[in-house]
Predict the structure.
Amino acid sequence: MSASRLRSLLLDALRDPPGVAQLVPAEWTRLVRDARKNDLLGRLASRIEEDGAWTRVPTAPAAHLASAQLLAGAQHTEVRREVQRLQRLFQPLGIPVVLLKGAAYVYAGLPAAQGRMFSDIDILVPRESLPTVEANLMLEGWATTHHSAYDQHYYRKWMHELPPLRHIRRGTVLDVHHAILPETARMQPDSAKLWEAVVPVPDCPGLYVLGELDMVLHSMTHLLSNEEFTHGLRDLSDIDLLLRHFGRDPAFWERLSARASELGLGRFLYYGLTQAQALPETPLPPEALARAAASRPPAPVAALMDVMWRYALSAGAANRGSLADSLLRFLLYLRAHWLRMPVWLLAGHIAVKAFVKEGGER
Amino acid sequence: MNLGDLPAGELRSRLTGAGLRLQTGPLVVSIRSPIPALHESLGRLYAQYPLAADNGFVDFEVEVGRPKGVRRWMRPQAVFEFDGHLPFKPLPADQAFPMLEWGLNWCISSHCHHYLMIHSAVVERHGGAMLLPAPPGSGKSTLCASLVHSGWRLLSDELALIDPRGGSVVPVPRPVSLKNASIAIMQQFAPGAVFSRVVHDTTKGNVAHMQPPANSLRRAGETAQPRWLVFPRYDAGASSRLEPLSRARALVQLIDNSFNFQVHGRAGFETLYRLVQGSACFSLNFRNLEEALELLDALAPAPGAELPLQ
């Protein structure tokens, strides 16, 4: 069975949970493995539950789905605890905290929270508060994970986030952003515009989520400007659920493309919509795609990128180690950095990463 | 059909081909490996395990392979692969079999959250399960190995899988892991048992595995209700003693030894609370196996005899 068939087993099951009734045991093996590999087993369990399809799942795979669902539930409890701690820390200081990605879906009660598995918590704070935020987090036991002087310099000078922080006792990982793309990026959405549109989380003073348009655009930007795609399919599944949810309002699509142009994120919207349509088969109004196509790159580039996205977002670890795999990975790594910084910086960065041995203990 | 019934050469061809499918308790695992040392130990220790159907569901597909690059040939190493990930650092190739055992334990403890899992040996007699929860180094596995050669049935030497719905323990009998001095002690204690080759200089010292008694494997489908909760500790310097333990203390120690208590939240607390309520709780200090067995055997007299009360 080819890799593409494996992909569609997972995507088919997410799109049409009752369809799992047709699967033979060998297909269940592949479905559970593929979902687990892509951090989507919890989501699959929730989709199946939502559609009342549990009874169609044989006992053995049902145990794995139940396991992932329990784990996702425990992670949500943990995320809420961590976010409450952040709120207690920053609200008295008057520093607003915007929850990003998974934590935002949980707090906004969106369908994209269902069965969502977490590897870290992402937040956005005002750039000018960054030193205060970092100092207070350190006092609370959050320690940096990148110890080499170069990595610290790289993050602080060029990135849009602090090096990831890990809590010394609880082990939770926190990504503190001050913008949604790096300082040096070719596209530089104005953070002030994002802040103007943030939405307070009810009953949680000091906590916010991005406005719905920005939430979708950020999810796309985050996924498609990355250089690694361990959680790529999970993040694309989030985007699928966000679009299905917000897209019920017919006016959403036009506002989405207008906002993308305003923030200079049209290209990300184009890639995000085309891949959502291609892989999880998100239903899109034709005019939404037509509008996004205005930001399409020249045809040969668009075709190459399409191949690369499909590969990065679906193959997962399937063909790891093959020549094509290495080449595509290298191209995506280059592209992510190309978007992130000017060529002269990129050349220096790649040279350091290639020739300088990792310093400091990790 | 059991693994031991496979015709000569078939074990190797499955391990190097589509995968050898074994039934271990409630789980089906598929194992692949090109490493001969692993084939040898696996063939010996799993001879009495049932093979799983070729077209059935597989819980975990694992591979103990060779790393890419120079370490394939020079001071060769083994890597454990699961779902396309390598969760552990490579080990010297002659540790391939212990690595498989550790890897399978890891698969269960990180992915079977539908059970409440406790780091514990579990044995059964007259229908009642005895849990022996303890951190590594407390003599739990050695005690477990001697119990299963003294009339107790093996459910697990490492992982108590508790079904939260009924509170019973689900057996996953696997080869019992023995370390350092315990290896010679058990070879002397159970001269008829089958042992793997001793693997030297692992992170846990010298390691060998012991085949579970055939009876424990035949009865791997029978769950058991917990009846005794015994926290063992090997202490060569003191006299052996079995002392009642308060239920509150037992509950706290149970939580300390649990792998995924936090995943189950309140329901997990309630499951463990019921377990402690329904069990006689003890702490056991032992200086040798004979004294420990005598103390534990006295807890489980033949049916009809009066059960000792706490």
